Automatic annotation (TrEMBL):
<comment type="similarity">
    <text>Belongs to the class-IV pyridoxal-phosphate-dependent aminotransferase family.</text>
</comment>
<keyword id="KW-0028">Amino-acid biosynthesis</keyword>
<keyword id="KW-0663">Pyridoxal phosphate</keyword>
<dbReference type="InterPro" id="IPR043131">
    <property type="entry name" value="BCAT-like_N"/>
</dbReference>
<dbReference type="InterPro" id="IPR005785">
    <property type="entry name" value="B_amino_transI"/>
</dbReference>
<comment type="pathway">
    <text>Amino-acid biosynthesis; L-isoleucine biosynthesis; L-isoleucine from 2-oxobutanoate: step 4/4.</text>
</comment>
<dbReference type="GO" id="GO:0004084">
    <property type="term" value="F:branched-chain-amino-acid transaminase activity"/>
</dbReference>
<dbReference type="Pfam" id="PF01063">
    <property type="entry name" value="Aminotran_4"/>
</dbReference>
<dbReference type="InterPro" id="IPR043132">
    <property type="entry name" value="BCAT-like_C"/>
</dbReference>
<comment type="function">
    <text>Acts on leucine, isoleucine and valine.</text>
</comment>
<keyword id="KW-0808">Transferase</keyword>
<dbReference type="InterPro" id="IPR001544">
    <property type="entry name" value="Aminotrans_IV"/>
</dbReference>
<dbReference type="InterPro" id="IPR036038">
    <property type="entry name" value="Aminotransferase-like"/>
</dbReference>
<comment type="pathway">
    <text>Amino-acid biosynthesis; L-valine biosynthesis; L-valine from pyruvate: step 4/4.</text>
</comment>
<dbReference type="InterPro" id="IPR018300">
    <property type="entry name" value="Aminotrans_IV_CS"/>
</dbReference>
<keyword id="KW-0032">Aminotransferase</keyword>
<protein>
    <recommendedName>
        <fullName>Branched-chain-amino-acid aminotransferase</fullName>
        <ecNumber>2.6.1.42</ecNumber>
    </recommendedName>
</protein>
């Protein structure tokens, strides 16, 4: 396995970064998770745009142009001979001193990893997920915009810990007003009376690229789609609930905080959207 690091491809065993990197010391940086389907990189342009917007927002200057970064990502996939893969692009503030000041970090560090995908076990797509809501709150948009996909994922890690302690594999975070925001690394949708709802980003959700693709697919299929805040009650009483994300794609949720959703099996609309999404992924790719 080859990893892009410091302007070259190095073997996984040799891919090492400085302990003074502010990504390591402070979670100072941004990242992307991207999917490759049948040799096509899914919605690469949108991932690149989100990466550069995230970096710009935290005043992190990526030396490479978006076009150069696009090429580096495609090259990493090719170098590893991968047809289906998960790509992780990390841009950290780079090495500096022990102080917090990012102005003492002269050069960002770019790492690109492409590896075969490990998704949720297949049976979970057939049975659906049981999830819980947890005490950890999504940080407020005025603290750090939820649109920034930063390396500072402690909230999300805590959500994952709380899920695992509750013996489930995923959980939902609320925002500080109690509206449902998102999962630890996925967006949430509910379906009620044939209408699809997902929280607007200002509630505290990342503008997920899978989320956007699902909204496109749903509209093409004739669904009404609304970005509206909703509460746990709305989730409990939804006809269908599902999560979306680069790694998970679309996965049904069948129980939330012990409440059965619908009939307790993946819903027909969720299945239909997943099918249409899978057809779309090949069409929307970059070779
Ligand atoms: N929300 C968070 C916090 C995430 O980290 C991710 C994963 O990237 C998502 C949502 C889903 O976004 P996407 O569909 O772009 O992977």
């Amino acid at each position: 396995q080859w990893i892009y690091l410091k302007d070259e491809f190095v073997r996984k065993e040799d891919a090492k970064i400085s302990v003074y990197d502010h990504g390591f010391l402070y979670g100072d940086g941004v990242f992307e998770g991207i999917r490759v389907y049948s040799g096509n990189v899914f919605r690469l342009e949108e991932h690149i745009e989100r990466l550069y917007h995230s970096a710009h927002s935290i005043l992190l200057n990526i030396k490479q142009t978006p076009e150069e970064m696009t090429q580096l990502i495609v090259d990493t996939v090719k170098k590893n001979n991968l047809e289906s893969a998960y790509i992780r692009v990390v841009v950290s503030r780079g090495p500096g001193d022990l102080g917090l000041d990012p102005f003492n970090c002269p050069e960002p560090q770019i790492v690109i990893i492409a590896e075969p995908l490990s998704i949720f076990p297949r049976e979970l797509y057939e049975t659906g997920l049981e999830i819980v809501t947890v005490p950890t709150r999504r940080n407020r948009p005025d603290v750090l915009s939820p649109k920034v996909k930063s390396l500072n994922y402690l909230n999300n890690v805590l959500v994952k810990i709380e899920a695992r302690l509750a013996n489930v594999s995923e959980a939902l975070m609320l925002n500080d007003q109690g509206y449902v925001a998102e999962g630890s690394a996925d967006n949430v949708f509910i379906l009620k009376k044939g209408i699809l709802y997902t929280p607007p980003t200002y509630v505290g959700a990342l503008e997920g690229i899978t989320r956007n693709a699902i909204m496109d697919v749903a509209k093409e299929l004739g669904y009404e789609v609304k970005e509206e805040p909703f509460t746990r009650h709305d989730v409990y009483t939804a006809d269908e609930v599902f999560l979306t994300g680069t790694a998970a794609e679309v996965i049904a949720v069948v129980k939330v905080d012990g409440r059965l959703i619908g009939k307790g099996i993946p819903g027909e609309h969720t299945n239909r959207l997943l099918e249409a999404f899978r057809e779309k992924v090949v069409a929307d790719g970059v070779k």
